[in-house]
Specification:
The structure is a homodimer. Chain A has helices at about 20-35, 60-65, 80-85, 140-145, 180-185, 210-230, 280-285, 290-295, 300-305, and strands spanning about 5-10, 40-45, 70, 90-100, 105-110, 115-120, 155, 165-170, 190-195, 230-235, 240, 245, 250-255, 260-265, 270-275. The first copy, chain A, has about 325 residues and is of the alpha/beta class. Chain A has a single domain (about 5-305), classed as Nitrilase/N-carbamoyl-D-aminoacid amidohydrolase (4-Layer Sandwich). In chain A, the strands form three sheets. In chain A, strands 1, 2, 3, 4, 5, 6 and 15 form a seven-stranded mixed beta sheet that branches. In chain A, a hairpin with a 5-residue loop joins strand 4 (about 90-100) and strand 5 (about 105-110). Chain A starts with a strand and ends in a 12-residue tail after the last helix. At the A-B interface, strand 6, strand 7, helix 5, helix 6 and helix 8 of A face strand 6, strand 7, helix 5, helix 6 and helix 8 of B. Chains A, B: This is N-carbamoyl-D-amino-acid hydrolase.
Chain lengths: ~325, ~325
């Protein structure tokens, strides 16, 4: 037996702040159509896929709110949903969510091939700051523009069209936090989707890591966490030079051994595809990473009892 | 400023069950002397370094207990301690511990260059089984021969001879469990030592992963956890064909970017060395992985509240 899903990572090239919404949506539909043509039934788009990565700008009022979605889908995004359902393809997509109560979240959803929302996730590990950095050309204001996710790390069991996969979502920086992966794996997660916008360099010209090192980091955490949680992972970038600020690519599909089975070669719109056999998770989940047999939570107390580090005293104990 | 420690990974080739204890100790002292000659002040030996990996055999009574140390050091192991102190070199070493009360642990210690025991750790993530596998030539009986570690994951602050490094220890399989690394990093850990004996193939000839894949896994988890916890890591194998069962090598020293800066080239006794600047941890600890700023423990509850996975219900939520 095998439980196969053909998955496409739909990497997106840059979206400039002056790009028209309809043009960006047309690019997404083109990626969806290419993925469907290749036989994929799940397409994974990036974080904040419908716009530029706007937390790099200090914005206010309607200029800020224009980046948010008040309903998903609404009239602006419905063509993507309609085309996906017509093609029998589901998708993960990240977007800026504005609730009826006025709350704002960095959110993702998984939509089934039948067009139903299987589940929603709101980003918990928000990087950046609340206050803008004085004098800096580029900001990272996610902590200003979004509330911390309030849905926890829910896993969702798909229907037969996706082989009853147990699916999880993360968003960008979340993937660097092993607690996030583990919280999903403790629900049996077999397939993780994560979209990202990750800087390729410091756009303000400060001390910086190379784009190659940042891409290595991005893939390393996905590979190791996929292995340690015995799941497939699909990590998808918005990439390239966006509004004068660089984003890494490196979109990839990783198997439960932590091996990259497919990866993007460009910093542009690009579909990367793999056949993911969910039954390959069973080896890890039943042996090396049989949580019930081997975890020792009575010794993990610091992970939930404290937020920051508490240093030991000096000297021989 | 930099806070430098020159560290040596002292990989050991195989130790057969009929090898004399004194001969194995002489190999360890030779590795220690080579590391000291190269200027190292910290030498990391493997797990269960003084003997063959005896949990592969079903043993009883004195035949089993002969593999354990009743005191560290005792007359058998004291020559290593004496030579280290004379050379001004400290070390991490793994051994089988038998307490006065008759408890048995898979244990490691860090000994300072002055010959004092800085700290002790007892392996928490014991793989294998309590009951032997009927008919199998080779066993994995760690759960039979050792009690689960009862010291938690303590970090220790070294003295000025090691630049006041905050040090942690893990043993073998522990390194695949991100909870273990995080528990240490939540104490500010800057340098992690881990020794291992990891199978290169299934010695009973069952379905198996290649030695290359197993070595990849072993390095992947060390690289990613070093990066996600912004620490140095020194991972040291007992390697090669031991008692007709194969052990991977791949000993390595990894920087806080998750980059391997030095690694073993053989499956034999081999010293690998690197200069580890503890101040390189500060970048990660103060920015990307500033735990106090970015962790959200209120959402990590499953990690401590449950041991095994609890699967979600089917259907649209």
């Amino acid at each position: 037996m095998s439980r196969m899903i053909r998955v496409a990572a739909a990497q997106m090239g840059p979206t400039q702040k002056d790009d028209r919404r309809a043009d960006t949506l047309a690019r997404m539909i083109a990626l969806l159509e290419e993925a469907a043509r290749l036989g994929a039934t799940l397409v994974v788009f990036p974080e904040l896929a419908f716009t530029t990565f706007f937390p790099r700008w200090l914005l206010e009022g309607e200029t800020l709110l224009a980046h948010y979605e008040r309903a998903m889908p609404d009239t602006r995004t419905r063509p993507l949903f309609d085309r996906a359902r017509a093609l029998g393809v589901g998708f993960y997509v990240g977007y800026a969510e504005l609730t009826a109560a006025g709350e704002r979240f960095n959110t993702s959803i998984i939509v089934t091939p039948a067009g139903e929302i299987l589940g929603k996730y709101r980003k918990i590990h928000l990087p950046g700051s609340v206050e803008p950095r004085a004098g800096a050309r580029f900001q990272q204001l996610e902590k200003r523009y979004f509330a911390y996710g309030d849905l926890g790390f829910p896993a969702f069991r798909a229907g037969p069209e996706w082989s009853e996969a147990i699916m999880g979502m993360l968003i960008c920086n979340d993937r660097r936090w092993p607690e996030a992966w583990r919280s999903l794996a403790l629900q049996g997660m077999e397939l993780l989707c994560v979209g990202y916008n990750s800087a390729a360099y410091d756009p303000n010209g400060g001390e910086t890591e190379s784009a190659a090192l940042r891409t290595f980091h991005a893939q390393l955490v996905v590979q190791a966490n996929a292995y340690m949680n015995a799941c497939w992972a699909v990590a998808v970038a918005k990439a390239g030079e966006e509004d004068g600020s660089g984003l890494i690519g490196g979109s990839c599909i990783v198997d439960p051994n932590g091996v990259i089975v497919a990866q993007a070669q460009t910093l542009a719109d690009e579909v990367v595809m793999a056949d993911c056999d969910l039954d390959l998770c069973a080896q890890g989940k039943s042996k090396m990473f049989d949580f019930a047999a081997h975890r020792r939570p009575q010794w993990y107390g610091r992970i939930t009892a404290q937020t920051g580090a508490i240093l030991p005293e000096a000297g021989i104990s």
